[in-house]
Amino acid sequence: MEEQEVFQMPRIGDPAPDFKAMTTTGMMQFSEYIKGGWTILFSHPADFTPVCTTEMTGFAVLEDEFRKMNTKLVGLSIDSIHSHVAWVNNVKEKTGIFMKFPIIADIDMKVAKLYGMLQPGEHETAAVRAVFFIDPNAKIRLIMYYPLNVGRNMDEIIRALQALQTADEHKVALPLNWKPGEKAIVPPPKTIAELEERLKSNYEMVDFYLAKRDL
Ligand code: BEZ
Fold first, then answer.
1. Of 49, 76, 122, which is best to mutate to test ligand 1, by the most ligand atoms within 8 angstroms of its C-beta?
2. Does residue 128 share a domain with residue 60?
3. Is position 3 within any domain?
4. Is the CB of 149 under 6 A from ligand 1?
C-alpha cells in the first residue's frame, strides 16, 4: 500500500504556528502581522476558479466590517505571487471588488502543510477551504474546513467571530444559532448553594443546568 505523508493538523487552543511568507502586500512574518488583534487566516484551492472567486470577493466586501471587529484577514493558496497579483487585478477589473487583504503565495505548500490545509484525500496539491480564527493572544480559537466543491458562508464566519468575541468579553457560553442581541448561557451551578440560588433566580430556565440571561 502507498504510504501517505502525515501532515500536522493545528487544534483549537494551540498557539498559531508562525511562518514567513510572500504575500500580495509584501513579505509577512505571521507572528508580527497578528499582534494586537484577531486574525482570520483562510485558504482557497486555486486562483482564477469560480467558487474561490465568489468566496474571496465575499471576504473583500466585508473587510471593513472585519476591521471594525478588530480583525485582520489573510488569504492563502498554493499559487505563485504572479498568479495572485494577476487574479486580484482581474477580479478588480471584472467586478470592481478589490481584495486589499494580503494573500499568501504558498507555492512550496509550507504554510498549507503547517496549518493542515493540504488534505490529500480531497486533493494532493490544492488547499481545502480552511478558516482559522486566531485571537489577540495568538491562540487558535475556531477552525472550519470545507471541501473543494462547497463554498463557505460569510454570515456564519461573521457570526462565529461575534460569538467568540462576545464569549470572551462576558465570560459566557453561547447556545445554538446564537446571534448578537440574544441571551447567553449562564454556567451551571457547581454547589448545592449555587443550585438553590439558581432555582430562585429570574433567569430564563429549562432546568437548573440550562439557564439563559441577557448580556
Ligand atoms: C472553484 O473554486 O470553483 C474550485 C476550485 C477547485 C476545485 C473545484 C472548484
1. 49
2. yes
3. no
4. yes
Whether 164 contacts 135, CB under 8 Å:
yes
Range of the domain at 196: 171-213
DSSP 102: -
Let me know if 144 is exposed, middle or buried by CB neighbors in 10 A (0-12, 13-18, 19+): middle
Give residue-wise pLDDT tens across range 99-123.
Answer: 999 999 999 999 999 999 999 999 9
Cell digits of residue 188: 451551571
Report the CATH number that the domain containing residue 207 is assigned in CATH: 3.30.1020.10
Check: CB of residue 177 under 8 Å from CB of residue 157: no
pLDDT in tens, 43-75: 999 999 999 999 999 999 999 999 999 999 999
Q: How far apart are CA 39 and CA 32, in angstroms?
A: 11
